[in-house]
Write a structure and sequence with these properties.
Blueprint: H1 2-6, H2 32-40, H3 46-59, H4 65-69, E1 76-78, E2 84-89, E3 96-100, H5 103-112, H6 116-119, H7 130-143, H8 153-164, H9 171-178, H10 183-208
Antiparallel strand pairs: 1-2, 2-3
Helix pairs in contact: 3-5, 3-7, 3-8, 8-10, 9-10
Length: 209
């Protein structure tokens, strides 16, 4: 509309004073204890095992659904330090990502490298549709008795808060790992961690009393 006004395609931009309003939503992520519960749970169904493992992989890499679904063997490379890393481009922002793999993520990769659905193809994981994946996640959280409405994006939130910031990694590093184009986008996670610290200290004060 601004362009149309500048090019005199329209006489007046009626949307000039219109401002978008975004409602704040609660960020859902797993604590270290909840992450461990999901990791340790034994499942009978393969769909639950696979979706749990892919979800955990994203908890330790920060990859969103679309990026992990598109992840191929060529995206796993060895860095200059001899360590394994993910080298890919974010679908949403087209920004290059270099994510060094933590041990937990490497173990999951090794677990599925010979999987029948993966071994003969270029993909790293057999990822179901987003709707099915979220359905299986709800079943997983119900099995481990975690009272949270988890979605696949909760893995990215868990990576940012519980895995990275809560362990003292600088927010600038997190911003690079998440592929954010602005640091201000990443700062919402810092506010979440600050509130968690405040809550933990409240519990500590009561315990000391």
């Amino acid at each position: 509309m601004r362009l149309a006004e500048d090019l005199v395609w329209i006489e007046k931009n009626l949307t000039k004073r219109f401002k978008l309003r975004f409602d704040q939503v609660d960020m859902i992520y797993l604590s270290q204890e909840e992450l461990q519960k999901i990791k340790n749970q034994k499942f009978k169904r393969d769909t639950h095992k696979i979706n749990r493992d892919i979800f955990l992989f994203c908890c330790y890499t920060g990859l969103p659904y679309g990026d992990v679904k598109d992840l191929k063997k060529k995206h796993i490379q060895i860095g200059v330090d001899g360590k394994t890393l993910i080298y890919t481009r974010r679908i949403k922002t087209n920004k290059m990502l270099r994510i060094p793999l933590l041990e937990e993520a490497e173990r999951i990769l090794e677990k599925y490298q010979d999987h029948p659905k993966v071994h003969s193809s270029d993909i790293l994981f057999r990822v179901h549709s987003n709707q099915k994946t979220n359905q299986y996640l709800r079943e997983v959280t119900k099995a481990v008795k975690i009272n949270k409405e988890l979605s696949f994006h909760s893995a990215r939130h868990t990576f940012a808060t519980t895995v990275i910031l809560a362990n003292g990694v600088p927010i600038e590093t997190l911003s690079k790992l998440l592929g954010h184009t602005k640091l201000s986008t990443t700062q919402i996670y810092a506010m979440v961690v600050d509130s968690k610290i405040s809550h933990d200290l409240y519990i500590l004060r009561n315990g000391l009393k």
